[in-house]
Structures are given as structure tokens and as C-alpha cells.
Batch of 3 targets.
Target 1
Amino acid sequence: MVDNPQQERTVPDSMNSPDNADDERGVTLGARATATAYARGAVGGLIVAMPLLMTMEMWWGGFQIPAHRLIVLILVNFGVLFILQHYSGLHHRKSTAGELRAAAAAYGIGLLVSLLTLFALNIVQVGSDARDVIGKLLLESVPVSIGASVSISQFGASNKVAARRKDVEGFGGAMAMALAGAMFFGFSVAPTEEAIILGLRTTPVHVIVLLLASIVLVHLVVYAVEFRSERVSDRRGRWRLLLEEGVSTYAVAIAVSAFLLWTFGRVGSDVGWIATRDMIVSLGLVTSLGAAAGELLI
């Protein structure tokens, strides 16, 4: 009996193609990797921000911080999340729109984890004042979303293309990563009363010591990072880059320190400039460490 040729073509050739099977497996693995990364981001955000989720000053800040300062904080935080997704992230071939979506996803994780945690701790209740709840969520979601984004970034950090992107970005990229690192470290201290106490207890001698220690610390970390970087090749160029990025990195750290203290109402027109200086320099020790290590964190 002769087989019917028409029956041999009932199954399209593309369905039996090994390439098609690989594509399907790639899509499946890609979706699975993305889901795993976001789950890891939620856990990472919770681990990073748990002390702040259980900090009274953060709860108070939800209704004490004026709305315009919260809005500025959210905008700055979204920029930090975008930086984290640009220089690492899960998928290195994303477009700018894709990176924006990834940053929005990280912030969404921050909001969701904050809501569930505050509800579990009975800090947020059914029937609570809407302004209070929104303020708490916007504030708490900042450290959670940064922790989530760092965790997601580390999930894809082994990709050689993502690693290469950090090496070729130059001075602007280094400062962007310094901003992200300073926010990552500084937010753990800025909301607390300790930031005020440290500023009030410092003397002019302490301020000078903290300033010099911060600058030395920045240069030591930048030295370790830049001298293994491929951005410069000649010795003179490396030393120039070290000095430029060291000073600029500390400037970014001080700016972030001042911004965070302003956000939480620690500094302002009603605070003397000496107390303001002391608090900024004290917190600058923390933010400078984060700024210098920003490229290592991402």
C-alpha cells in the first residue's frame, strides 16, 4: 500500500525544527528567569529594608514629610532604579523603554512589599487615613525598591555585555553609579534620629577628621575599582582619572547626604549652618562609602 503524500505534510516542518524547539525553550527559560529574578528582588528588597520597615522615624515620616519633598524623593529614586537597570539588570539588551519598565517594576515591587509588610506589622490598617498610608508606602518603598533592584541586577551581573557596559561609560557613568550607591547606603541612616545626634555631637575637629577620612576612603575604593578598569590604559591617565573621580565621587556623596537630610527635615532654613554642615559631613561618611563602592554594588 502506497502512503498518501498529503498525509506526510499534515505536520508543518517548522514544528519539528530543532531551532524552533530551542526558541520555545529560550522563551520558557527567559520567562522563568525573569520570574525568579523578580521573586529574588522582592526577598532582597525585604532583607535590605527590613530595619527601616520597623523604624519609627520612617512611620512618622510618612505623614510628617511634605508632599512636595516626597515627590522629589520618588523622582530621584526612580532615577536611581533606572541607573541600576541600565548598568546591570536582568536583561542587558533592553532598550531605554525596557529599562524604564524594569525600573517601574522594581518600584512596584517596593510598593507591594512595603504594603504587605506594614499591614502584617499592623502599622497600616484597614480604615487608616489615606494620606498617612500613601506617605508611608512612598517612603518605605524607596529602600525596598533599591534593594530589589540591586538583587535583580546581581541576578544578571554575570553577563559579560552588562559588565562591559560599566567599563565603557566613562566619567558620567561613574558618577551615575556613585549616585546610586550613595542613595543605597545613605537611606539606612538619614531617616533616624542618630543622624541629628551625630551632627550635634561633632566638634570642628571631628568634622575635619570625618571629612578627611571620607575623602581618603573614597580614593582608596576608587583606586581599587579604577585600576582594574579598562577605561584608561596609560599610567598618567589613570592617576588623573583617580583624582577626578575621587573628588567628584565625594561631591556626589555630599550632595546625596544633603538631599536626604533635607527630605527628612533635618536641615533647612530653621537650622543653623554649622549644625547643617556637621550633619551633612557626618552622614557623608556613609554616603561616600556607598558612592565609592557604587560600581561594585551594581
Target 2
Amino acid sequence: MTDIALWVRHGTPEKHWQLGTDSPVGTRWTLIGWDCQPAPVDAGVPPAVRRVFAHALAEVARVTFVSTQFAVPGSAGWSPIGADAGRELHRDGWASPLLARLRQQPDRLSLVSTRSAQTIEQMFDDDGFPWVMQAQIALLSPPDMPPPDVDFGSMAELLEGRWPEDTASLARLGVQAILRPAVDGDAVGLVGLAGSLDERFVASLAEAASRNSMQWRALP
């Protein structure tokens, strides 16, 4: 049996976590990690931790992330995928597909937006956007709002570890927090943009940890 302790620390993470460039002024950083005994063999999020994260997120937020695991409609706008929603974003510009291939970057991104813990859990295990390679990003918005109409450029910047110059535009779309993997996927960086959704998620995670007999540590 594995003993698991989740820990949380507020404030800008150290550089070795490789969580991207400095976030914009007015945002709030939270770093969340886990300690397991015995230590896991593989990098990334252990299955039990994935489940706790997914249920805690589903309780307080709509989660929108990039995915290759769903058949996302190619039409503009959001379309239903069962109880979830999906859409495809395309790089702007007539030469973009060629430039994307030259730069080894995608010219389109498929997004899934969900309130389902089962769907959220798949975010940690997508071969096309591997969590352990820091190739994943998730936007958190209020659960009663529709999926955010984020554009290709903003998502591409976030996936590359950069921050959009105008994060206020994301907030206007309803995005209140952004979640991204730290180096080797061994921790989670959470940035609050507006509202208190990041704080509510941390509180939800603490409760989920307790329900699942995991320790919870608030670090200075």
C-alpha cells in the first residue's frame, strides 16, 4: 500500500520547476505536489493522485484542455461530445501550415471542455500532449459558464511555456485560473487570473485528499 501526502505552497515557484516565463502582474501562483512512499517508478502523476485532482477540479470548475483522445468536430465553435464539448482551433494565416511544419509545431489544436472527473483524468495521460513533457495546459472557468472561446495563439503560447501579453482577455472569456505541469510532470503549477477559483480548487483538493486518506501539508 502506498502512503501519499499532497502539499501546497503559495508564491512564485523556483526556476527548477520550469513553469515558464514570469506570469503577468496581478496573478497568483500556487505550487501543488505529492510525496509517495514507496516512491513511484514512473515520472508524472500517480494514478491515485490523478483521481483526487480530477474529482477536486470537477467539483469547482469547468476544465478546458488540449487533447488527442476525442473525435473533436472540425466545424467552428464548440460542439457536444457526449456530456462534454469540443472544438478545433486553427493557426491563422495562409502560410501557417507550412511554417508550422518547418517549426515542428501543430497548425491546429483540439480542445475538450468538461465538468466530468473521468474526462479530466485523461488530461494526465494523453500521448499527443504528454503531461510528463510539460506539453499540457488546462484553463479553469466557473462551472456554470459555457466553454471559453480561447484562440489558437493564446493556447499555443501557453503550451510553449509563455504567457499571453493580454491575460485580461482570457479573464473576460471566463478563464479564472490556469493549470500546467512542472518539470517531469512531478508537480502542478496553478495561476489565478481573476476571482477565487484557484483558491476554491485548493480547498476542494484538501477535502478530496482527506476523503481518500491522504495527508495534506501547507508549506510556508
Target 3
Amino acid sequence: MKKFIILIVFIILIVTEAFAGPFGIEFGMSLEQITQISRGSPQNVDGDWFIIIPPNEDVFFETYLIRIHQRYGVYFIRAISRVINTDQNGAELKEQFNTFAASLQRTYGNYLRSDTIIPGSNLTSPNQFMEALQREERELAAFWNRNERSRLPNDILEIIVIADASGFSINRGHIIVNYYGIQYDRIESH
């Protein structure tokens, strides 16, 4: 009997995790619902932006931000990684980016990868990767959306992962993942 109960609890946990949104947050949740599931109280940082500690926190990430619309609830989720120390050509940052993108690919399938230097940039050599990223003259990003035939749940419009250089040092960076809820365009167009 004890094994049966443990099996049932295990199945419930798996099913709950399978249907949970990013980090255990469902798009459309109200601020009250987020407050109930978060570890600690959401901290309002600007208008509809809140810093939270989600129920399914990932050790890779240090900061979680959500945007909550009064009518539509949560419509945007952002997670920012811990600082990634790297060299000038961004080897460690690129490695973490590739690892994270591969992880999302297993869940969401096809994606578009963009590793481009902005036209007109003079920062084109490999050892200038981080400086170009910091000056926004280079982009390293991955995009999951319906145009790429990604396997997105109905409530997710798009997922974008970017490599970002810290503003203070070209030897420090972050991976940022943005989840756009299906209501995102409707809300932002008003």
C-alpha cells in the first residue's frame, strides 16, 4: 500500500510538472495567484514588472522577472542567469548559451539561431566578441516560434534566448531567456 501511494504521488508530480509553465508559472495567472505560488512576496520594480522567486527555481538562473496585466495576468516571463565569467572571445558564455539552447531544443524543437555582427561594426575579430556584444554590435540569440515550426504550447507565443555582456566588464556575461505569452502582442499594441 505504501509503495502504491508513493507511486501515485510520483505520477502526480510528473503530470503537474509536465503541464506547468516556465518555472512553474502559468501565463494568465493573476498577481494573487503568483503570490500564492512564489517563494516570498513578488517585488514590484516598475509598473507591471515584478521580481519573483518561482516555485520551480533553476540553479542556473539568478533573477526572475514577470509582467502582469490587470486583465490578462502574466504575459511575459524573463529569467537571467548568474554571472558567467568568460574570456574576450566569449568561449564560456557561448558554451553556456549552446548548452541552454540544446536543452530548450529537446523540449520545444526547431529554432532559429542568430550569431551576427551588426553591419558597420568594426568589432569583427573573434577576440572582440564580448566587446561587440557589450556595445550591441553583435547578437547571439535563439528564437523558438511558430514560423520555425517549434513545438510551443498554445499559451506561448515565442521564446527568445540571448547572450548578454555585463555593462561593467567585457569578461562577464549572462544568458537571458524570455517567454512571451500568447497575449503579449495584444497587450503591447495598446
